[in-house]
Every structure is written in C-alpha cells, then in structure tokens.
Amino acid sequence: MSPGMARGEAVLDPRLAGARQMLSRVRAVVPVMSAKGGVGKTLVAVIAALHAARRGRRTGLLDLDVTSPSAHIALGVDPGSLQPEEKNGVVPPLVAGVRFMTVAYYTWDRPTPLRGQAVDDAIREVLAVTNWGELDLLIVDTPPGLRDEALDTLEYLPDPRVVAVATPSRLARAGVERLLALLEEQGQPRYLLVNMYAGGDGLEDLAEKYGARYLGRVRLDPSVEEALGDPEKLLSTGMARDVAEAVDRLLEDLGI
Amino acid sequence: MSPGMARGEAVLDPRLAGARQMLSRVRAVVPVMSAKGGVGKTLVAVIAALHAARRGRRTGLLDLDVTSPSAHIALGVDPGSLQPEEKNGVVPPLVAGVRFMTVAYYTWDRPTPLRGQAVDDAIREVLAVTNWGELDLLIVDTPPGLRDEALDTLEYLPDPRVVAVATPSRLARAGVERLLALLEEQGQPRYLLVNMYAGGDGLEDLAEKYGARYLGRVRLDPSVEEALGDPEKLLSTGMARDVAEAVDRLLEDLGI
Tell me, what CATH number does A244's domain have? Predict the structure, then answer.
C-alpha cells in the first residue's frame, strides 16, 4: 500500500467511520498544530485542556503525536500504571479533570520510530477505538511539522478548529506561513497562538493575511520545566496564565 | 514501492553509489541530528560550519531538511538569486567561506509538504548530484525527529560522525535517549551538544550512558534572532562562542 494513496483510501477505511461515531457527542474538536517541533505545542495543548476543565467544560485531551508522545509527562501520568477501561471501546481515564488518551498507554513510554504508513495506521486505530462519550471540547496534540500524518489528521476529525502554535523566529516563519496557507486552502477554521520564547514580533500580520483569529502571545517562562508532571503547578505558571486567556477567547469564539 | 523497503533498496540505488563517489574526498562527514525539532539544530550546524571555515578547514554545509530547509535564512542566502554552478555535478556556491548546498535553490524557499518516499528521494537526489570536491569537513543539517528520513541519512553518508543536539526538557528526554540508543546500536561515532535555552541539567548522564562524547552546553542567547542572515554577526553571538568551543573539541577528536 503506497503512502501516496492515504487520502484516497480515507473514505473506505471503516475505522474512520468508527472514529466519527466515537466523536459524535463532542461539541468542538480542536487540533493543536505546528509547522515545526519545539514551539511548545504539547504544553499549550495540555495547559489548554487543564484550564478548560477548570472552567467547567467537559474536556478531553488526545495525544496523537504517536512517534514521540509526551503529554503524559506534562500531566504526570505513568502510562505503565494507569490503564484505560474498556467499555464500548477504550474509555480514557480522568486525569486532573481531563479525559486523557495517549498511545503511551500501549508503547510504555518509548518513542517509537515508525514508517509513514505505520504512523497513519496508529493514528486511525487510536481514533477508532477511543470512546470519548459526551464532551464540550476535545484538544488534540498532533504530530509536529507539515508531514502527511499531521495534515491527514484533519481529514479524520469532524469539523476541526485548528489552533496553530508558532514562534516568531525567522528560521520558522516560512513554515508557519505554509501551515496557515494550507488551512486557508482547506477552509478550516483557524486560530494562531504565538510562543514568544525567542523574542521577535508577534506574527499578527500572518494571522491577518491568512484569516486566522489571533489568540495571543505566550511568554517565556522557565518555571514550566519544574512544573512538569504536576497539573496544579503547571496551571500556576506565567505561561499558563497566557494560555488561559487564549483559551477563554477560543471558548467564547466557539460558543461553548 | 513501499516505504518499508527503503533500507533494503539502498544498496541497489545507483544514486547512492554516486553519492559515495561525490563524498570520497571529504575527510569527515558530520550529520547534526535531533530527536525533535526546535532545539537549535540548524543554528548549531550553520555556526559550526562558519566557525570551522574561519579555523581554516575546507568546510561544506548541506541542508538535508528537505521539507523545511532554513540554513539559507541563517546564512542570508537568497536561494532565488544564488544558483550553483554545474560542473561534473552541482558545485555548491561559496558562502562566507563555506561550500553551501540546499534544496531551497530548487524549491524557491517554499516549505514543501512531501510524502515519505518523496522525502527520501529528494535526499538521495541531492546527495547524488552534489560535487563537493576536496573538503576537510562536511556538516549536514538533517531532518529533525526519529523518522526514517533522518535515520536513513546515516546509511547514505560514508562513515558519519553524528552530533546529536538536544535540550534538557523532560518532555524531550525520552526522545534524546532513543536517538543516542539507536546510534549506539548502529555503532556510529556520536557526540552530544546540549542547548540550555529552557534550563534543566546538562544531560551529561545520557552522554555517559550511551557512550557519546560530550561536546558542551550552548547558552540561551536572544541576540541570535537579530543576527540571522549575517554570518559575521552570527559568529559574534554568545551562542556562537559556545558552539565554537564545541567545534574545536570535535575537530581535535576527529584529528582534522
């Protein structure tokens, strides 16, 4: 099976119909994407989910970065000891108020080198088996970069509203632009959140150019490293205050 | 052609024999790798090449991050106006004393979403056509992550001596460990350079555990962003001073 066929096949794979069914009672699916790794995508996804749950929204968090899952580390979950219950599919355990699903439950925390088709396969499998129940919001941490596995995710999720996370580095700018352009081409609702850790301008011009709603800037905050693994501490960092404001804007915009 | 066949095919592809020929007069090939994006891999590769050239080594720099090439931005090269000469293959132009080759010469600076096999193909093609001539050192900026395209690169390059670049974030630690373990399994000579931008410990324990020579720590230096595009300025940053020390250690170790 050639990786070039993936898009064509999508409609034929019964797992994708299953995935739609599993997500049918989720009001808003929000993939967090980035054109490049190391921009804080995972931290934004984790903090956003924790904050939304504190705000009383029924919230899920799905780590689809299947070759290097790390959301569980930020949440302090030992994937070897916490295992999801099986009940009409796999029911994600509740972690700090968030329904949390990750392939790390099955790969025992080892980063997994996978060929392209195997990555796509793992993503479809996780989507097909996870029973989310009723949720207001599902945050999805996607694989970084402009590779198929990130872009295909958008086809597998119903009505995705993408939050693009970016840094203003000139080395990364062309990538951010390409991601926003792709989202615009596909007509996906899109938001931009900018991580300021390396300084630079806030990329407001790119949001404007590609019709993305600007969610704000996130400050550099070295205290986050220490707070990893402790949801309470994570929520008290400066980074979390900035992400929380962005999430409040997002919830308002989504009407949930 | 299935991506799962890539390793098996490698011996049969005449382009790879061509690549070996093109690299036969290069004394040391040094791929710069990272388990995840955003750790400063490209900056390290660019500064290392600039510094080695200043030290009088005949130096080349090859940007193999074919989906998101960015070394040309750090060097201040406009890939539309600078085009390599063709003479027994493609002769990389001299930029600030460094023979510099990138796919951006051909993609006009647009990040390119490619499927797995196409990425591998572009990498083989660049390796097969580039006539490096006689060099002391060729630094290779590789695609980030533990995907095939990064790992396969090691099979295409003769006697690679890998510099792994990492940050000490706990979110990234498992990935760094996996990369070093893979290099150890394959018996590749390996070095570790740690980018300290987010704080944390220096990962010396991982270098020890996987038999990697420790090249040092690189400090956080926001002035780098301003220096992008200006090799002279880049070399005067604090980051460059740390990278320069690491490169001097590397050159000594390689005996060049």
Answer: 3.40.50.300
